Amino acid sequence: MSGVSSTLSTPQMRILVFLHSFGPGGVERVGLRLGGAWADAGHDVRILMGRREGPEKRVAPHNVIYDFAPPHWLARPFETLWMVRQLVGAIRRHQPDVLFCAGGTYTIVAAIVRLILRSECPPVVCKLSSSLDRRDLPLPARFGHAFWLRQHRWFVDRFVALSSVMGEEIATRLRVAPERVWLIPNPVLTNEDLKSLSTAGRGRNGRGRLFVAVGRLTRCKNYGLLMRAFAQIATAEDRLLVVGEGPQRAALSRVAAKLGISGQLRMPGHVASIAEVLGSADVFVSSSNYEGLPGVIVEALAAGLPIVATASSPNIGHVLRGGELGQIVPIRDLSALANALENAGTRESMPVDTMLSVAAQYTIERSAALYLHVLALAAASHVDIRRSIELEPLQEAVG
Prior knowledge:
Elements: E1 14-19, H1 26-40, E2 44-49, E3 65-68, H2 79-94, E4 98-101, H3 107-117, E5 124-127, H4 139-150, E6 158-161, H5 164-173, E7 181-183, H6 191-198, E8 210-214, H7 223-233, E9 239-243, H8 249-259, E10 265-269, H9 274-280, E11 283-286, H10 295-302, E12 307-310, H11 314-319, E13 327-329, H12 334-342, H13 352-359, H14 364-381
Parallel strand pairs: 1-2, 1-4, 2-3, 4-5, 5-6, 6-7, 8-9, 8-11, 9-10, 11-12, 12-13
């Protein structure tokens, strides 16, 4: 695997990013932030949007060129096919030097577009953040997913991993040369975010504890498990706050009612300031079955919060330093999660300086230049990736 130094300069490029909408989701947020940073660095950045909706629209960069697909009822229910059609047209119109695929959910689009355009398709750089070992899927589906992953080597020129563990997994499972895998921390924060989180409030100073989870209300987040674990250990003064919106809202409300914790649970939907939420919390919890690197875990580190997280991705152990900066429990393990919540500790017990220094590695200001170097390598090489690519690995990424 390879790293890049943030001091390397890159030639001006035409970069095309494609996103279904303005979120919600970490993939979209990072894609938008990177696009803005690349434009700040003097590059011609276009972001193709399948739809104009989403909560990240309020913080989307204004220095990029947006290429909005025309409104159509197909855009949401058939978003992949809709994006393929729009992306083929955008590539032919704008002739970008490189195509940035912001996450694994978008690789099917890149694959189909490459099949359609063949030599017309620009080189593809893809960030893969989610665990490749889909333990959340039934066994037959996991075999199918593994087969699909192995096809990525034919249509992706360069892969970006968020940690060395994830990089090794990409090289092994996708059967690609390690020289095509680059290690760059996920840019989930700005320097301003880091300062805001590090100076946020320090808990409620009440008798009970406030447990906070943040993310879409979907099955993979497994908030039902979190509610059951909370119900086992909570005192009458404890509270659970689940921030986010999604299709599981009604089902989760029923679970809370059945457990008798409706009065202790709040699900406010999207919030304007995550710093305020984390600043008022006593413990942050991630109960997911499957994740990439949840940006909110990095935000919780910056806020100095006790953290409890399931082992939903190899990146979790990396960012939490193998459990040094937070408790890591097996996925779907009710007893282990409840025990971790019970023994989560307090803010005063956390190594705040170490947590903040780790969080500082995940800023857009640090990572944007590293991405630009990988994009420039892909644009310069623009060859059939079925050939063997030999590169001299550089030193590990430094900021």
